[in-house]
Amino acid sequence: MSDSKGCRSTSHDSVYLAEYYDLQAKADVTTLNAQGDAKVYLSALERQMESYYPLDHHGEHLVVLDVGTGTGRVLANLATDAVRDGIPLSNVEFIGVDKEPSMIHRALAVQRETPSMSQVGRIDWLVGDVLHLISAELLETHINQVDLLLSASGSVSLLFRAGELMRFFAQAAALLRPRSGRFYLSVKKDLISTQATTKPTDENATDAGLCERHEFPSELYEGIVYRQLPTESPALDGIIKRTPYQLQVIRRTDAGCEEVIEENHIECVQRIWKETELLECFKEAGLESVGIIQLHMRRTMF
Ligand SMILES: C[S@@+](CC[C@H](N)C(=O)[O-])C[C@H]1O[C@@H](n2cnc3c(N)ncnc32)[C@H](O)[C@@H]1O
């Protein structure tokens, strides 16, 4: 089970958590420059468009696959930025995959609310696991056909169990178009080490914000407020970082009464990767790393 930030939770998959994820992401745009990744994906798309020859593609779409898509933030931004810059999208196919049905449900709504998405040639949303991508019916038919594979917001750190990273990269290698396909893998700076040890590159980049109390009024459900309560600080246990937090979904009445209708105790478990480990796994999976982009709080390898 995952929470709004894609972490392990004792709560049920919930429409409220999906909306909370969106509201938190919007708030992060100003506080954490969370949309700073948009320009990376836009220029990646532009580069793929430049080398797209319909004949090579046998008339097929240029395929962008966003894994751990959440509520479709990255794809919606990509469509909006592309339309703004006059990049035609009629020959582009977007596929968003997330293991949480509520996230995919919300991504569909985001698609409808985002006018630029109507210009994308084809859009599919899929409930599925990054560890089993190629066994999903839709993706079975996309082996060697994905031009751009995106894994944003450091979600790869959620693959903390032995063998999971390698499994994910092997699926990526099978899906990517040989030679021209590109995989953009974002890792948060506090969850990657460039040294032989697993000391994160940016010790100051903590999730301290999670420990504070935040409230967001719902924009979708009348009288609903999301309240993130203060919790303990993240605990680092070797290569594993555990961040607890608590989220209440509250219904407020006109009379000023409050009722907690959903209580989520969440533990976000993330693994700190050494950059060398990621690169070795890339290689083992048959992928070649051709560059690294540094952003404010993330490194994106491709
Ligand atoms: C941090 S959010 C990122 C969402 C989106 N990519 C963005 O940048 O806004 C991580 C997402 O990954 C999803 N996720 C986590 N583990 C997954 C897995 N094994 N397979 C598919 N999705 C997963 C979570 O449900 C969550 O929506």
TrEMBL record:
<dbReference type="Pfam" id="PF13649">
    <property type="entry name" value="Methyltransf_25"/>
</dbReference>
<dbReference type="InterPro" id="IPR041698">
    <property type="entry name" value="Methyltransf_25"/>
</dbReference>
<dbReference type="InterPro" id="IPR029063">
    <property type="entry name" value="SAM-dependent_MTases_sf"/>
</dbReference>
<protein>
    <recommendedName>
        <fullName>Methyltransferase domain-containing protein</fullName>
    </recommendedName>
</protein>
<feature type="domain" description="Methyltransferase">
    <location>
        <begin position="64"/>
        <end position="178"/>
    </location>
</feature>
